[in-house]
Every structure is written in C-alpha cells, then in structure tokens.
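Dissemination and training. As part of the outreach component of the grant, students in the summer workshop were shown how a complex can be specified as a set of sequence lines and then modelled as a single object. The example used during the hands-on session is reproduced here so that future cohorts can follow it. Participants entered these lines:
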Amino acid sequence: MRTELRRAGAEESLQPVHLQSLIYLSKANRYSNTPQALAEYLGLTKGTVSQTLLLLDRRGLIERFEDDIDRRVVRLRLSPAGERLLYEAQPTLAWQNATRNISPNRIRNAVSALREALTTLQEDNEGAPFGVCHNCSWCQKLSQRIYRCGRMGDRLSGPETRKICRIFEAKKTEEAA
Amino acid sequence: MRTELRRAGAEESLQPVHLQSLIYLSKANRYSNTPQALAEYLGLTKGTVSQTLLLLDRRGLIERFEDDIDRRVVRLRLSPAGERLLYEAQPTLAWQNATRNISPNRIRNAVSALREALTTLQEDNEGAPFGVCHNCSWCQKLSQRIYRCGRMGDRLSGPETRKICRIFEAKKTEEAA
DNA sequence: CTTTTCCGTATCGAGCCGATACTAATGGGC
DNA sequence: GCCCATTAGTATCGGCTCGATACGGAAAAG
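and obtained this result:
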C-alpha cells in the first residue's frame, strides 16, 4: 500500500503525504476539516501541515476559507481539481478490485475483526480516535435520513455520517463477550 | 499504523523509512538482503536507498559486507544495536495486543482473506511480489525441519522459510473455487 | 577480449519535516 | 471593559529524504 501510494503520487509529482492529506480531506466531516485535525490525523506538527497545505493550495487542489464563528479557524476542502485528481488516482478502487475473488461473507468478517483490532489499538496508544461518524457512540438516528451528533448537538445528513470525525468514540462491541 | 511508525521513529530521531528499512532487513531472507531488494520493496530508487543505508550504517544499526560470489553485491543485516532498537520499538507487538479480544478463529479467517486480497493486489499492479517464503509455490518440504527452494535449489532451514523473499510466487489458492 | 549489463555509490537540487518563534483571535476571571 | 492564558495558524531555519544524473567496478554476453 505504501509503495502504491508513492507510485500514485509520483505520477502527479506529489509526495505520499500530499495524497494522504487529500484523501483525508475528501473524507473529513464538518468537525474535522481543519489544519489542526489533519495534523493530528497524520501525526505531524501543525507547522509541517501548514507547509503541506501551502503547496496543495498553490497547486489549486484545495480551498481554504475562514470559519464564520471562530475567525482563527481555517476550513479546508478539496477544489474541483483536487476531487478530479483523487478520482483519477482511485486509491480505494485497487482494494475493492483485490477482494473480487473473496466471498462477501468473508469480507464482512474480516472487516469486523479489523475494526475491533483498530479500536483496541487506538485505546492502547491513547492516540487520536478518528473514526467514521456512523460507528460512533454519539451518533443517533432521528429518522430515515436524519441523524444527530449527541456530542455536538448538530443534525447530520446520511452521507455526512459516513465521513471521518476527529471526536469519534467507539461503540462498545457487543460481540466481544 | 503510519502515525504509529512516525512516532516510534521520532523517539529515536529516525524517519519512518529508516524503521521500515530495519524492519525489512530483520525479515529478509538470503535472497533479499541487498540494497536492490530493499529499493524494490520500498518503491524507491537505488540511489535514495543507498543514502538511507549510509545513515543507518553511521548510526551503527546495520552491517554491510560483500557477497562472496558476486563482488558487486552488498549484503545487509541488522547489527546488535539495530536488533535491540527494533526489539524495544516492538512494531508488531502493538498489533498482537490489539487482537487480544478477538477469537483465534476470526483472526485466522481475517488473515486468510487479507492474504488473498494482497496476492490479487500484487498481481493487478504487476509489482514486486515479496511474500513469506513459506507460502511460496517454490517452497518444498524435504523433512521435518529441512525445506528447499525449487527456484534456487538451496536448502532452507525452518526459520528461514518464515522470512520475506523477493522472488516469491504465490501458491494457487485452493479455496478460491 | 571487448562490449554490454548490472550493483552500488556520489553529487546536486527540490522539498518534507520538526523546532522555535511569531501573529491573531478567543475566552476566562475580575 | 481589561488583562492574561490559551488556541489556530504561519514563518523561518537546519537536517534529511528523494529523484535524476553521472560514475566506477564487477560480471555476463558475444
């Protein structure tokens, strides 16, 4: 995967960390699309991330705009060019293809086991949690299409609950008897 | 994992690529402990890897010595200091701990599914194969403790068949009907 | 024996990265 | 409202990664 990421980045003359940043931003929800969150996610300092964002901005791959409420905060999102680059690189497609010969049931089991391992790993390291909103213990389902974050008190759309959140807290696993 | 690797490296003031190189060398078999193999494994050029090895050598973490037969070739192995550093960093231990709450059966299934996906992924990318000798189609069992590489014609010890080989070829999966 | 091929190294320039110092905005205590 | 601690982000500097290129030395091809 590491080699693959390097190769994909080299084609656009981007470093692995640039692609990882773009991938993250494409999946970050409203609480997690800031330089600070990206720095925590990548395990880099905010100064380093600031430079990375400078480069991505110069390339026109991201857009930066001020937060309405807290004017210290910079919000980030992919530009159309950034979306296109990511779409053409298709970093996740390779893995989807790689599982084509494996039964859906085995994939489900493997994914579930890996998710448990990841949660335990994150707890052990006391690191930033960073999980998909939909699997978070704060995520409440209000109706067919409307969700709510019990931590922040905001209403969330369905697609938004499939994004990555920096204040994620894992649900207690019921099957881990 | 990426963040973890960076953190572990930072404690020794090493870059991620340095730790990855050490990890690789700790697991590379006799056909795969050269700068060339490491470059292919990491997806870097041989020039870059040469510099990485220069640094690791200056730090006393690896040892370099000439090959007896082909005198162009440099053989690499971890020095005692390098072994100690890896042992203290314990990069694999975190994952072993993370699976402590998962039943051995689920782990076996997940590992098997992942191995299949990896093989497919490698075939798709036509990249360097790099697999564990024991799972290679050339690996023959001669007796209880003696194995043989059908490709190179050498006899291999049991522990050696658990190392990484650059001329790996995946066995045909029997269960993928 | 000559030519080609291959393994590894050396050097240069672009750029990542952490450390440090800095600006600007927020928020708490009074 | 005012002071100060805190927080988000930026700027600068030095060490190092990384690819490109050129090079030397050994092996293989003819």
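The CA atoms of residues 121 and 130 of chain A lie 12 Å apart. Students were then asked to discuss how this feature might be tested experimentally.
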